[in-house]
Amino acid sequence: MEPTCSPAPKPQAKAPAYKLTSRVTHPQNSLIPLGSFVIGGPEFIIMAGPCSVEADPQMLGTAWDVKVAGAHIIRGGAFKPRSSPYSFQGLAEEGLKKLASARELTGLAIVTEVMDSTDVDLVSSYADILQVGARNAQNFSLLKRLGQLNKPILLKRGLMNTVEEFLCSAEYILAGGNPNVILCERGIRTFETSTRNTLDLSSVLAIKEKSHLPVIVDPSHASGKAHYVAPLSKAALAVGADGLMIEVHCDPANALCDGEESLNPEQFKELMLTLKDLAPHFGRQISTIANHNPQLAENA
Amino acid sequence: MEPTCSPAPKPQAKAPAYKLTSRVTHPQNSLIPLGSFVIGGPEFIIMAGPCSVEADPQMLGTAWDVKVAGAHIIRGGAFKPRSSPYSFQGLAEEGLKKLASARELTGLAIVTEVMDSTDVDLVSSYADILQVGARNAQNFSLLKRLGQLNKPILLKRGLMNTVEEFLCSAEYILAGGNPNVILCERGIRTFETSTRNTLDLSSVLAIKEKSHLPVIVDPSHASGKAHYVAPLSKAALAVGADGLMIEVHCDPANALCDGEESLNPEQFKELMLTLKDLAPHFGRQISTIANHNPQLAENA
Amino acid sequence: MEPTCSPAPKPQAKAPAYKLTSRVTHPQNSLIPLGSFVIGGPEFIIMAGPCSVEADPQMLGTAWDVKVAGAHIIRGGAFKPRSSPYSFQGLAEEGLKKLASARELTGLAIVTEVMDSTDVDLVSSYADILQVGARNAQNFSLLKRLGQLNKPILLKRGLMNTVEEFLCSAEYILAGGNPNVILCERGIRTFETSTRNTLDLSSVLAIKEKSHLPVIVDPSHASGKAHYVAPLSKAALAVGADGLMIEVHCDPANALCDGEESLNPEQFKELMLTLKDLAPHFGRQISTIANHNPQLAENA
Amino acid sequence: MEPTCSPAPKPQAKAPAYKLTSRVTHPQNSLIPLGSFVIGGPEFIIMAGPCSVEADPQMLGTAWDVKVAGAHIIRGGAFKPRSSPYSFQGLAEEGLKKLASARELTGLAIVTEVMDSTDVDLVSSYADILQVGARNAQNFSLLKRLGQLNKPILLKRGLMNTVEEFLCSAEYILAGGNPNVILCERGIRTFETSTRNTLDLSSVLAIKEKSHLPVIVDPSHASGKAHYVAPLSKAALAVGADGLMIEVHCDPANALCDGEESLNPEQFKELMLTLKDLAPHFGRQISTIANHNPQLAENA
Question: Which of A84, A144, A175 minimises the CB distance to D168?
Fold first, then answer.
C-alpha cells in the first residue's frame, strides 16, 4: 500500500528558494536507499541505538537487540555535540570502529553524526548514513561538503529553524549534487519546559506539502522522557512520517548521556510490535518483523 | 477497553500547586458527563461545528451534518474573541438561540464560548458546556465564576501557557467547587509560521501524567489549515487524547471566520469514518457511528 | 525640549486594523493627563509602589517614600492575578481604600489593576488610572467596558502578544470612546530563563512608529530581579520610552509577592536621582525632583 | 571612570559548567586587547562596517568613513552565512584581501566571520579578530579550533541559545587555551515579527553577573531596521554593554545584503557623536573622537 501523505500542492508558477528540495521541481516522493531498505516508500523505517557509542558489549549488545526487534538501521554517536566542553565528547574513531563491528554483526547499515567538515572523510569511510545534528543545521560549510558525497545524509531540523530554513539547509546538500537527504523533526525550542523540546508534528505535514524528501521523527530527543517515546512514535506514524529515530540503551540508568530518554531493549521490542500492528492502518509496513498473532503481540 | 494513558506517576509525597487537579490527590481518570456521553472513558469524544454561529440554515444544516457523521457535541461561537474590534463579534444571544435550535434538532449537547463573567448567567442558560477561550485562559475572575457552576467547562490552553499554568487555571475552577473540567490543547505560540499555532501533542502526555482531567485536541485552531486537520486528528488519537474539537462549516469559502481551517461536511464525515476504524487500535471507540464494511473496520 | 521619538512614518494610504490607535489617523503624539502631570510630553513619568497593597503602614509608608523620591503616580495591587488560586489574591476593596489613603497623604494619583468587567465600577470609584494586566491583555469584554470610561487606562502588553495585537487591544478601548490609553511593555515570554520575562525594548520603537499613544516600561516584572531594574530603567529612558513603572516595597524580603524584583525605598531614591540627571540627555525631564548638586547633574 | 557593571555576585561555593568563563573563578572583568584598544575597560568599543565586503571602492570608502567617525574596529564579511545556497556567499579570500587593504588604509584592526574549522588558518592569516556567527554558536568543532588560537574571538549568541549555553560555548574557546573572547548579544528568535530578532538587553546584565568576559551589542542584526539602530545603541550603552557592532554601508539601498538595517556614513557619524556625548554618563568614553562643543554636535 502506498504511503498516504498530504496531497501534493497545486503546481505553482514559481519555485521557492529551495528549488531542488521543492515539490514544484520534483512532484514525486523521493525514494532513498538506506542499506537494504528504501525510505520514502511503504516501509516505515526505524533507526535505533544508543545516544553514544560506549564500550563494546554495550554497542554490540544493543545493536543485536534492536536488530532482532526489527530496526532497519543502527544509530550511535561517536562524535557527540555537548553544550559543555567537559562532558563526554564521544569515542571518535574508536566509536566508529565499534559501529562498524555492529554492522558486521547485524548486517544493518549504520548512521552516525559528523560534526565538522574536517571529519567528513573519516566518518564517511565508516558510516553508511551521515547525520547532521540540530546544532549544525545551519553549518553551511558542513552542508556544502556533504553535498559532494553520494551517501545519504540525515539532516536534523535546528532547534530554532523554521520549516523554510530547514528546507533551505537541505537545498545546500542537493545543490552540491547529493540528492539523498532524509529530514528529521526532533522538536523545536519553545517556552514549554515539561519536555526537553516541543515536538512539532505539524512540520511533517508542512514538509511533505513543500518537499519530496522523506521525513522521520525523533521522539527521544524531542521529549527527553523515555515513557513519552511510545505514544509520540504512534502519533508520528499517524501523522504520516516516513520513519522514526529511537534511542535505545541496554542499561539506560547508566548511559553516558540521554539515559532518561532511552528505551531499554524490552521496551523497544514492545514498541516495535505495536508499530508493526498499527502500520498498515496508515499505509505503511514494517517488513523486518514476521507476521504474528496480534493477540500474542505482548507475549512475543 | 480502557483508554491507555501514560502510566500514573509514582505517588508523590507533596501535591503540586494544582492540588485538586493533580493525580496525586485523585489518581483515577475523571469521567465527566457530556450530554448523553461520558468523556475520559473509552468513547473518543468529537465536538464539531462552525467557528461562529451564522444564519439559521448554516447552523442547523451544519449541526445536522455533524450529527449524522457521528459527532457527540455541537460547537458554535456566539461570542467571538476577535483581535480587532472591527471584526465580526458574534451574534450574541441570537447565536445562543440558534445553538439551542440545533440541540433541539439533533438531540446533541452544545458547547459555546463565554467571554466574560457578566455573560455567565446568560450563556449557561443556553449552553450545556461552557468554553473558556485561549485568550482568557488566565482570566482568573472568569474561572472563579465558572467554578460556581456545575456544568462542564471546556478550558482551552493559553497560547503561551505552560502545562503547569494550564493546570493551575483548571485548579481555579475545581477550587470553586466545579469538578467538571475538560482541558483542550489547541497549539501554542512559537516562532514557526507555517502553521497558525504549533500543536503540542506532548502536552497531552504531560497533562495525563500530572492530572486526572480529560484532555481533547483542537487541530483546527492549532494548524489553521483544513488539510492538516485529518492527519493531526489521527495523531491526537494515537497519542492518547480523549477527543477532538473540529471546525466544520457547510461552506468554508464563505465562512465569517476561520474558513481556511474548517472542514466541509463531506470531509468531516470521511474523517469520522477513518477515526471510527482507527479508534479500537488505541483503546477507544466511537459508538455514534454504526459498524460498517468489515474490510474497512477492524473488529471493534 | 520635546521628547525625541522615532520619526513618524511617511503617510500611508491605508490605515491598519488599529485605526484610532494608529499614527496614520493621529500623527501627533497623544498627551494624556495623569493626575497633575501629563504623559507623552517631556516629563518622564514614574509610577511606583508595591506589587500588592498590604497592611496600612506598608502602603502609606511606601507611598510617602516614593513621593519624596519624585514618583508621579502611586501604584499598588488590590486585585492580584495569581497563577494559583491558593496564592494571596489581594485585599480587594480594603486595598482600594488604603490606596485612597495613600493618595490623600501624598497628593499623587493612584493606578491599580482591574481584573474583571464586574469590578470596573468599584475600581474606578477609587482609582485615577485603571490597569489591565498582561494576562488580560486580550480580555476583550474588559477592554470594551473600559472604553466606556474617561479615566486613563494603563494597558500592559500580553506575555505573548505581538505589537500588532497589542495595538489592536488598545483599539478596543479607543473604539469604545476612551482615548486615554497608556501602553506598557513588561517583557514577553521566550525560551530564556535567566530573567522572568524578556524585556523587548524594541517594541517601544515599533509602538512609537505605528501609534501616537505613550508607552512606558516595567523593568520589574520584565526582569524579576531587583538588581536589574536600574540598568533596564536607564535603557528604557535611552530608547525613548515615556516613563517607567517600578515596584518598590519598604521591606522586599517580606513582601507578599514579587519581593525579589522590588526595590527598597533607598534604592528607588538613588535610581530617581540617576534618572533625574540622565533625563535631559534624552529629551526628558523629571520635574518632581529639585535640581541638586550641579556636579551630579547636567544643566537641565 | 571605571565602567559600571552589575555588582559581582556573592562568591559561590561551586563553579558552574562554564568554569573558566565564570566570575567565580575570575572575579575581575577581563580586559582584551583589540588592535590598539582594549575592550572591557572604560573605552566603549565600536566595530563598524558593511555586512559583506563588496567591491574595493565600497570597502575602502566605508572603512575610511567609519574610521573618521571614530570607530575602533572595521568589520566586513568575506564568508557569508546565507540561508539559501543561491544567495551571495561572500568574496572569500578576495574579500579578506580587501579587508587587509582597509586595515592598511585606516590603521584599524579588522574583524570578520570564519564559518568552518577548515577556514581558520586562512582567515586568521588576515583577520585580527575572528567572528563566530549566530548560526555557528554551537559549532563545537569550530569553537575548539578557535581555542587553539591566541587571537581574539568575537562570539555571537545563537538565535535560540540561553545565556547559559552562550557561556558554555565561550567555555569551549577558553578551555582550548584562548582567553580572548568577546561576547555579542544580537537578538534572539521569538514570536515577535516587527523586528528581525528580539534584542535581549537583559542578557548583558545576566552575562556580566555570571561572567568576566566583555559583551557588546549588535543592534543592526537584532532589529533589521536602520532607524532602530540609534535608539537601541543608546539603550545598549545605558544598560552597561562594553561596545557595539554597527552595520554601515556607503549605499545601503544597493547593498548586497542587509541594506535595510545598515546606516549610511552620515547617519553613523551622527550616532558616534551622540554616543561620544552620552558615554561619560555611563562610565564610558569614546576617545577616538576629539572633544567638541556639545551644542554643535548635530552640526558636525
Answer: A84
Copy the grid coordinates of residue D196.
528581525
The answer to whether the Cβ–Cβ distance between A83 and D138 falls below 8 Å is: yes
Q: What is the pLDDT of residues B185-209, one digit of tens each?
A: 999 999 999 999 999 999 999 999 9
Nearest CA in chain D to C189: D190
Please give the mean pLDDT across all residues of chain B. 92
The whole-number average pLDDT for the span D99-103 is 96
Helix (H) and strand (E) counts in chain A: 9, 10
CA D108 to chain centre: 15
Q: Is B291 on the interface with D (CB under 8 A)?
A: no
Neighbours of chain D (3+ CB pairs under 8 A): A, B, C
- Give the torsion sign (CA, B3, B4, B8, B9): negative
Q: Nearest-5° angle of CA B240, CA B242, CA B247?
A: 110
Q: Distance between CA B99 and CA B97 in Å, rounded?
A: 5
Residues of chain B contacting residue A200, judged by C-beta atoms under 8 Å apart: 190, 192, 198-199
Nearest CA in chain A to C191: A191
Higher-pLDDT residue of C300, D76 = D76
Q: Which of C85, C117, C165 sits opposite B118 (nearest CB)?
A: C117
CA–CA gap between residue A191 and residue D115 (Å, rounded): 29
C141 touches chain B (CB under 8 A): yes
For residue D17, which residues of chain A lie inside 8 Å, CB to CB?
A: 83-84, 86
Cell numbers at C283, concatenated: 529629551
We find that the CATH architecture of domain B32-288 is: Alpha-Beta Barrel (3.20)
CA–CA distance, C276 with C266 (Å, rounded to integer): 15
Nearest to D229 by CA among D242, D214, D216, D244: D244
Three-class DSSP labels, A200-244: CCHHHHHHHHHECCCEEECHHHHHCCHHHHHHHHHHHHHHCCCEE
Model confidence at D4: pLDDT above 60: no
Q: What residue in A sits closest to D190 (Cα-Cα)?
A: A190
Backbone angles phi, psi at C28, to 5 degrees: -85, 150
Interchain contact, A202 vs B206, CB within 8 Å: no
Q: Is the pTM above the cut of 0.90?
A: yes
**3-class DSSP state of C74:** strand
Residues of B in contact with C158 (CB under 8 A): 160
Residue D2 confidence (pLDDT): 36
Whether the pLDDT of residue C10 is over 50: the answer is: no
pLDDT category of residue D10 using cuts at 50, 70 and 90: very low
Q: What residues does A247 pair with on adjacent strands?
A: A49
Count of H-run helices and E-run strands, chain C: 9, 10
Q: Give the distance, in angstroms, between the CA of residue D170 and the centroid of all CA atoms in the same chain.
A: 15
Tens digit of each residue's pLDDT (9 = 90 or more) over D32-79: 999 889 999 999 999 999 999 998 788 999 999 999 999 999 999 999
**Cα–Cα distances in angstroms (integers) from residue C161 to residues B18, B199, C188, in the given order:** 26, 18, 8
Say which amino acid occupies D68.
V
Q: Do D202 and C191 touch (CB under 8 A)?
A: no
Q: Which three cell numbers stand for residue D124?
A: 586568521
Cα of first residue to Cα of last residue in chain C, in angstroms, is 10
Q: Is B189 within 8 Å of chain D by CB? A: yes
Q: Is C107 left (phi over 0), alpha (psi -120 to 50) or beta?
A: left
Tell me if A168 and D85 make a contact (CB, 8 A cut-off): yes
Q: Nearest-CA neighbor of A69 among A298, A287, A272, A213?
A: A272
Give contacts of C190 with chain A, Cβ < 8 Å: 191
Chain D contacts of A159, Cβ < 8 Å? 160
- Please check the confidence at residue B17 and state whether its pLDDT lies above 50: yes
Residue D57 buriedness (CB in 10 A; 0-12 / 13-18 / 19+)? exposed
Pairing between β-strand D32-34 and β-strand D37-39 as defined by DSSP bridges: antiparallel
